[in-house]
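INTERNAL AUDIT FORM
Audit reference: QA-55
Scope: verify that the stored structure record matches its stored sequence.
Auditor: D.O.
Record contents follow.
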Amino acid sequence: MNPTRGGWLIGLTLFIALVLSAVHLPENWPGWLGWLRPHWTALFVFFWVLHFPNRLGLIWAWVFGLLLDVLLADPLGLNALLLATITYITWTLYERLRMYTTLQQCVVVFLLVLVTEIVRILVHLLWLERDVSILVAMSAVMSALIWPPIEAILRGLSAQFRVEERS
């Protein structure tokens, strides 16, 4: 019997996603490598909502989005809104998305992260007047490419630690 039903694993993996999102590249590395960073929190939220839709809700996605806003110095609520939107879309379509092949899921991940990055670009352009590059779309490409191994790792961890649906 698993008393926490694996909730600690969900929290730990989302914390790791936050850390991976906030880690900077070493100074002596080329700057363009930073554009190849996947959207870790979106990937992890997508996985947990897709495979365990009753375990991660809009409130938790919002909370982790607020933490990501603080870590990345984005306007408060931007990532919270984006992660809650990803959660809602995945939650409403999870039965259909589960039947998709891995390649089709990669396309869905690509589209979700691409829309997320476009909204982030617009906010940065309109309100923060920061310089942005079209290379931000590379985050969507890298997220789609890394989705299969991330899904395999998280699926193995959830089976090993017996993550269960909430009743």
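Auditor finding: record pair retrieved intact. The chain has six helices and no strands.
Action required: none
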